[in-house]
């Protein structure tokens, strides 16, 4: 009995350490070494739907910055397996309206236990995930294009300055955001907070992976607004598949660099 009891205690300690390791917030990635230059601006365009115009005037006033690229660095909690929340650190690199690269490190006791690298360039996406997993194909391309545009909630000027993007009126708290996807278009339902006027949720229909037959409602919720590098932005983004009912990933932005030279960084494997 003593041996059995000792074994049970040993495994209980292992389980506790495993749980504790995933509760430790990772150290952040090193700050990106470039700094944002002064940004050129354009006047806020006329004719925007009422909640959209209110939102932009709150964020930028009547002058919209021209943002061509961005490097977003922060930390996250991800749940690739139901019930298991894994801390992570990430760097997202965007060439506005053209493509992006997602790099992230999943951690345990702040030690890297797996890395992911997702690239979306020239309309094609490839995911290189932990444990040697990867994915690509037309469904993945469709999903990646939605990801690219959804992440511009962190730099919403792009929704006004990139060709092929338009806002369509719905009501006082809702608008449609139409974005290009090659020769086609994709549509988000944009829901604005009636109290603050901030963009709160983007909704779209998205494929989960290359094996998906049907699209699933995909929700991007923005919160925790702060001034970052001179502009207010939602520093927290929650990503939810509707059929799962709760966010599978929570991203917190900690560092932003606009209009840096990302030509090499967007094609790199590491941070």
Give a short synopsis of this structure:
By secondary structure, this protein is α+β, with helices and mostly antiparallel strands. It has helices at residues 2-21, 50-60, 138-150, 158-161; strands at 41-43, 63-65, 69-81, 84-95, 99-108, 111-121, 124-128, 134-136, 166-171, 174-181, 184-192, 199-206, 216-228, 231-241, 249-258.
Explain what the structure shows.
The chain is of the alpha+beta class and 271 residues long. It has a single domain, classed as outer membrane lipoprotein receptor (LolB), chain A (Clam), CATH 2.50.20. It is built from four helices and 15 strands. A hairpin with a 7-residue loop joins strand 14 (231-241) and strand 15 (249-258). It is globular.
């Amino acid at each position: 009995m003593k041996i059995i009891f000792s074994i049970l205690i040993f495994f209980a300690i292992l389980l506790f350490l495993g749980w504790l390791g995933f509760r430790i917030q990772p150290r952040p990635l090193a700050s990106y070494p470039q700094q944002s230059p002064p940004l050129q601006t354009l006047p806020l365009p006329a004719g925007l739907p009422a909640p959209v115009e209110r939102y932009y005037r709150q964020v930028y006033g009547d002058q919209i910055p021209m943002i061509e690229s961005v490097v977003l660095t922060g930390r996250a909690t991800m749940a690739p397996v139901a019930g298991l929340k894994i801390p992570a650190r990430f760097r997202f690199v965007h060439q506005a309206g053209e493509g992006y690269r997602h790099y992230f490190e999943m951690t345990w006791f702040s030690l890297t236990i797996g890395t992911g690298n997702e690239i979306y360039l020239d309309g094609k996406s490839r995911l290189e995930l932990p444990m040697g997993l990867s994915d690509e194909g037309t469904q993945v391309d469709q999903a990646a294009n939605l990801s690219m545009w959804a992440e511009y909630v962190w730099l919403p000027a792009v929704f006004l300055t990139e060709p092929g993007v338009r806002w369509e009126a719905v009501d006082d708290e809702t608008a449609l955001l139409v974005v290009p996807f090659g020769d086609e278009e994709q549509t988000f339902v944009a829901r604005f907070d009636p109290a603050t006027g901030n963009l709160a949720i983007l909704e779209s229909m998205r494929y989960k992976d290359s094996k998906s037959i049907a699209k699933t409602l995909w929700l991007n919720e923005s919160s925790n607004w702060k001034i970052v590098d001179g502009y207010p932005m939602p520093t927290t983004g929650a990503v939810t598949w509707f059929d799962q009912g709760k966010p599978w990933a929570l991203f917190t932005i900690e560092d932003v660099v606009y209009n840096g030279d990302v030509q090499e960084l967007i094609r790199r494997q590491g941070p």
